[in-house]
Amino acid sequence: MPSVKYEDLELAFDFVSSGASMEHNAYISLDAGTIHWVSGDDALGEELPSDFDTSDRYIAIPHKNDLDLGRQLVTRFAEIELPDHSGKIRGFFSNRGAYARFKDFLASIGRLEAWYRFEREATEKALTEWCRENGVQVVKDGANK
Q1: CA distance 145 to 129
Q2: Which of 23, 47, 50, 81 counts the most CB atoms within 10 A of its CB?
Q3: Spans of the chain below 50 pLDDT
């Protein structure tokens, strides 16, 4: 079973999720546990293994939307942490710039740090579960997780 450091996985996940779905990709080698970063047709800072395009031994790290960590997570946060404001928060997402408005609103009511903690915990849980389902061991802070 390959292992990957949680910190490396999180960086690759953030890279994949920083653009539209399929704009940026990262793959874990099921043989070596290494992560390969790709944007468009370009490998970033490395030469891809010769079998990269033909082997089934590389799995794509998911985009945040694939793990319900986009708008769905905001909705969950609003319903759990701010039920009186959940309608207003959902309304932010009917136009562009929703995350900026959402975070500005949270800052104005002193709840931005609560959002960051909620998002961080949900992301770690989802990524750890995704790895378990795909036969990848997550290592965090020098210990198996």
Answers
A1: 11
A2: 81
A3: 144-145
